[in-house]
Amino acid sequence: MERYDRHGGTPLVPDRLILSVVVGSRAYGLESADSDVDRRGVFAAPTPMFWRLAKPPTHIEGPLPEQFSWEVERFCALALEANPTVLECLWSPIVEHLTPQGEDLLAIRRAFLSRRAQQTFTGYADSQFRRLDPERPRWKQAMHMIRLLISGLHLAREGEPLVRMDEHRDRLLAVRRGEVSWAEVTRWQAELTEAVRDIGGAGALPAAPDRRSVDDYLTGVRKAFL
Fold first, then answer.
1. What are 36's strand-pairing partners?
2. What pLDDT digit, counting tens, does each position of 77-104 carry?
3. Which Pfam families match (predicted)?
4. Using one digit for the tens of pLDDT, what is the confidence trace for 41-76?
5. Of 24, 65, 77, 140, which has the fewest beta carbons less than 10 angstroms from its beta carbon?
6. What per-residue confidence (pLDDT) applies to 10?
7. Residues whose CB falls within 8 Å of the CB of residue 193, separated by 6 or more in sequence, listed in order
């Protein structure tokens, strides 16, 4: 895949971006002086591109360092599946680029939410923890998995993910510096995971996403880019 795709002579990124946000440590409030600026975006390919045998790409890297963008249909499909990375893009506090279609996407962001997110947030964090070696932990990765569980718990309780980690910043940064024992980290992980599971169906999330609103949104985007 090209880092800067000119599919059919059309620069899809950045010219077709409808939303671009900063994610990662700078969005979470956990950055250090040398932290990268991680950008995630959504672009809308011109509708006539879908009439060909060769479809437009579902995602593109670049052109900026640490930049990755999804075509809007792929982004919506992943959000409906409660992909944690994609859902958190919709709540990033740092929005760098926004078009009317991007505004409409943010306006329906709650339509993507369902109780499935309680499983995806805890499941992804658990799978990543299992890959860590307790004898030689990768502390930064451990910190981000704890952060993901905090976000997932807030999502289950309040109906939206928690992106800014101001309240938990000091403790999370202590994990990243390796100043917290592995036993304490795993206890924290277990407490957060159990708290999410205890909520079950009694939390703030609906049983299923609002697929009709998402379909209506996508139809509007395709009409706008005919």
1. none
2. 999 999 999 999 999 999 999 999 999 9
3. RlaP
4. 999 999 999 999 999 999 999 889 999 999 999 999
5. 65
6. 56
7. 122, 125, 126, 149
Handedness of CA 71, 36, 128, 89 (dihedral sign): negative
d(CA 155, CA 162): 7
Q: Write out pLDDT tens, residues 1-56.
A: 444 454 444 578 888 999 999 999 999 999 988 899 999 999 999 999 999 999 99
Q: What 3 state SS string does the chain have?
A: CCCCCCHHHCCCCCCCEEEEEEECHHHHCCCCCCCCCEEEEEECCCHHHHHCCCCCCCEEECCCCCEEEEEHHHHHHHHHCCCHHHHHHCCCCCEEEECHHHHHHHHCHHHHCCCHHHHHHHHHHHHHHHCCCCCCCCHHHHHHHHHHHHHHHHHHHHCCCCCCCHHHHHHHHHHHCCCCCHHHHHHHHHHHHHHHHHHHHHCCCCCCCCHHHHHHHHHHHHHHCC
Residue with tokens 């995602």: 59
